[in-house]
Design goal:
The chain is of the alpha+beta class. The chain has a domain at 4-125: Gcn5-related N-acetyltransferase (GNAT) (Aminopeptidase). Helix content is 33%, strand content 31%. It has a 7-stranded mixed sheet with strand order 1-2-3-4-5-7-6, with helices on both faces. The longest helix is centred in the middle third of the chain and has 15 residues, at 108-122.
Length: 178
């Protein structure tokens, strides 16, 4: 059971950067393809979270974390980036849905996804889209949450081990209930 899902503003992101870096390291070490390779270290993970600060601060990136358990540590995150071009302000890209390997199977990913979708609808986003490694656990989560497959691109990115993997594109209209 998830204790809390909360948005992070830039101040909270900076305050929790090291905890978020540890989450990212654990997820990548477990083999999740999030744009990083297996040699990711704490400094690199922390720097990546720091790179998000301007977008969180200006509101173009919305970010949530989940906390589960007695220690209240962050065990999951999801974000979406709102398109800034005039002809695309109605859409956002869902990014970096990740759940710590020790917290999987408890509904955390689904709860984070639902929160991001509901917030998108409240913000006037009418279309969410994403890409995820074909055949991954994340792909199963998106399918079960009602996302529609738009296609697959072969050899799109490498997994953390450096092997080329396909990606599946999905979209969802957040104002349409699951």
């Amino acid at each position: 059971m998830i204790d809390a899902i909360t948005p992070l503003d830039a101040t909270a992101l900076a305050a929790h950067r090291d905890e978020l870096a540890e989450l990212l390291l654990a997820v990548v070490a477990d083999g999740s393809s999030l744009g990083f390779l297996a040699d990711l270290d704490h400094a690199g993970a922390a720097a990546w979270w720091d790179s998000l600060l301007p977008a969180v601060e200006d509101g173009s990136l919305a970010l949530w974390v989940s906390r589960t358990g007695p220690d209240g540590r962050i065990d999951g995150t999801v974000s979406w980036y709102r398109e800034s071009k005039p002809n695309g302000r109605h859409r956002a890209e869902l990014r970096k849905l990740m759940v710590h390997p020790a917290a999987r199977g408890r509904g955390t990913a689904r709860a984070l996804l639902a929160e991001a979708e509901e917030a998108a609808a409240r913000a006037g986003v009418v279309l969410l889209f994403l890409d995820t490694e074909t055949g991954s656990g994340a792909e199963r989560v998106y399918r079960s949450a009602g996302w529609t497959e738009a296609g697959t691109i072969p050899d799109y990115a490498t997994d953390p081990a450096g092997r080329l993997r396909p990606t599946t594109l999905f979209y969802k209209r957040p104002n349409q209930h699951r």
